[in-house]
From TrEMBL:
Family annotation (InterPro entries): ARM-like, ARM-type_fold, NOP9, Pumilio_RNA-bd_rpt
SUPFAM superfamilies (UniProt xref): ARM repeat
Native source organism of the sequence: Oryctes borbonicus
GO BP, one annotated term: endonucleolytic cleavage in ITS1 to separate SSU-rRNA from 5.8S rRNA and LSU-rRNA from tricistronic rRNA transcript (SSU-rRNA, 5.8S rRNA, LSU-rRNA)
Keywords: Repeat
Domain of life of the native organism: Eukaryota
Alphabetical list of Pfam families matching this protein: PUF_NOP9
One annotated Gene Ontology cellular component of this protein: 90S preribosome
Gene3D superfamilies: Leucine-rich Repeat Variant (1.25.10.10)
Gene Ontology MF term list: RNA binding
Name of the molecule in the record: Uncharacterized protein
Amino acid sequence: LKNKNAQDSINSDDIPSDYVEILKDYSERLISWPQFKDLAYTEITSGMLQILLKALLKIDMKMLKQYIKRILDESFCTNNDIESAEHSGKLPDVFMSKPAIMLFETMIETAIPKHYTQIYAKCFKGRIRALAILKSTNFAVQKLLMHCKEKVEFEELFDELSNHFEEIISAGNTGVILALAQTCKRLAAKQANFVQVKRITEFPINCQILYFSTELNQSLTLRRSGRETK
C-alpha cells in the first residue's frame, strides 16, 4: 500500500486487537533505534512514522508523547538547527524536507496541547508569514491553525498573518486564509479583526472564505444587537 492509503486506513478503521501488542512492541524497539533522528527525512521512513503516530493515538498515548517529544527534540528544530537558521536567515531544516514536513503535519494533528505549544513556540513562532507564503510549507500552517485550541496562541498566530493576507493570496495559498477564518469562528476570537482586514485589503477570495467571512460578520452583528437591547 502507498503511504497515503495506509494512513487513511489508520484514520478510518480500528486497529485489530491481535496487533495491538505487536504494534506496542514494535514502537518500543523503533524509538530506541540509533538512527531514529534521521527517520523523518526519507519518504519511506517518514511515512512509516506518520502511520505509527496515528496508530499510537488510538492505543498508547504515553508512547505517542515519547515519540513526539523525541522527534521534536532530536529531529526537528534542534538548538543547533535553530541557531544555524537564525545566522543564515533561512528556515530550519525541517521545513526544507518534504518527508519531514509531512511528518510534522501529522505531529501537529496528534499532539497533546502541551506538545502543540512546544511545536508552535519552537518551530513556528516568528516564522508564520514566511511559512504561509511557501507552497511547500503553507499546509503545515493550515494544520497549525486547524488544531489550535488556545485563544492566546491563536491570537499570536493571527497577528503574525494579518498584515500579509494579500501576499498569501498572491502566492495562491488561500487555504491559509480559509483556515484562519474557520479558526476565528471556532474559537470565537479575532473575528472583527478578520472582517476588518478583509475589507481593507480587498483581496480576491474564494467561495469558502466568503462564506466564513459572511458568517463572522453576521455573528458580530448579532452580538452587537444583543448588547444594544440589554
